[in-house]
Amino acid sequence: MHFRLAVVPEINHLSALVAEAFNHYDLYQQTIGQTFLKTADYQRFILQLHAVHIAVNVHLKKVFVVEAQQQIVSVVILDSPQLPTPSIWQYLKHGGLKLLPYVLKHQLGRFLKMLEAAEKVPQQDQLANWHINMLAVNPAHQGQHIGSKTLTQYILPYVKQHGGQQVSLITNTARNVAFYRKNAFQVIDERWLAFQSTQIKSWALVRQL
């Protein structure tokens, strides 16, 4: 397998891959997903949301992919004090205007504010901290330990090579918590995220390098 930066011509492919990987993720389905009456409309929203997120971060050189046999098997977005923070202008430039209807009809602004607050929890103290903003495994390659290999063989060595002292992330499923604990991450925070009348559990985890 090979670990490298994603490039601009791959944005559409990566967006579709990530949208499929997260289509049934509790964070989306149990919160903003409940505001959609039709499954097809919800799926289009998930694709557009990730298309904007992927496009912005590819241009900022924060998206990495793992390839095996010329196929992309996982996608990673990394945040750190060494990497640029996206601006509102960059989100608008790379498709953010297409999300405006979801702000009005589906409370996207509230959802993103909730998510941003949760992401900040494990990043508040350490300047050397790196954060896994996203780790998505290609659905066609799930069940092959791709997530574990991506984490241990590529993400953690890359962060350590670039001076990182710890890696953090958040997740919203107990299954993922067990996976990261098995890979030496420790839970540093547990809380409930509120969206309308729904609450979903959020865990923040950190691993020292």
UniProtKB/TrEMBL annotation:
Signal peptide feature range: none
Superkingdom, taxonomy of origin: Bacteria
N-acetyltransferase domain segment(s): 129-186
InterPro entries: Acyl_CoA_acyltransferase, GNAT_dom
Full protein name: N-acetyltransferase
Organism whose genome encodes this protein: Leuconostoc holzapfelii
